[in-house]
Design a protein that fits this description.
Blueprint lengths: L1 E4 L3 E4 L4 H17 L2 H13 L2 E6 L11 E6 L2 E7 H6 L3 H19 L7 H14 L11 H7 L2
Parallel strand pairs: 2-3, 3-5
Antiparallel strand pairs: 1-2, 4-5
Helix pairs in contact: 1-4, 2-4, 4-5
This protein binds zinc ion.
């Protein structure tokens, strides 16, 4: 278990140490670029709902976010990311965009803006991530998904 944000968010990298290191590097870059307000909001949320990041070989179901997703529960949070994506994505920007998108969901939870209405939540989260300088992966060319699906 590798701490990502103080003691409130940990990476459970299991046997995938190389992918775990790559994920942490990308996570740290995204985190360093956030302003104090976003950092405080996200950190406070994780203190109240401690989180674990799981790197999975294959995501358990297809959805709008094939590379990462958040599961919220009372007092805890699970973030799941595709290990093949972090192993094979061709640029730091692609890796960071997935992390930034999920952190944007967490920010919206912490700021009281999150909505259970999936489409509205996705749209607002993509807009927020864009203001942070990240184009959410689901807006990108789908050829990369086909490449990963073939793994
Ligand atoms: Zn999303």
């Amino acid at each position: 278990m590798i701490p990502l944000i103080l003691k409130a968010l940990h990476l459970h990298d299991g046997p995938m140490k190389d992918v775990g290191r790559r994920f942490k590097k990308s996570f740290d870059r995204v985190w360093r670029k956030r302003g104090p307000h976003a950092k405080e909001t996200i950190t406070t949320y994780f203190r109240q709902h401690p989180g674990t990041v799981y790197l999975c070989f294959r995501m358990d179901f297809d959805n709008q976010e094939p590379y990462g997703r958040c599961c919220y529960d009372v007092g805890r949070t699970a973030l799941t990311f595709s290990a093949p994506y972090f192993a094979l994505a061709s640029s730091d920007a692609l890796r960071e965009a997935v992390i930034a998108h999920e952190l944007a969901h967490i920010y919206r939870r912490g700021y009281g803006k999150w909505t259970a209405e999936t489409d509205a939540e996705e749209e607002a989260t993509r807009s927020l991530a864009l203001t942070w300088g990240y184009e959410s992966p689901s807006l990108r060319d789908q050829s990369h998904k086909a490449e990963l699906d073939a793994v």
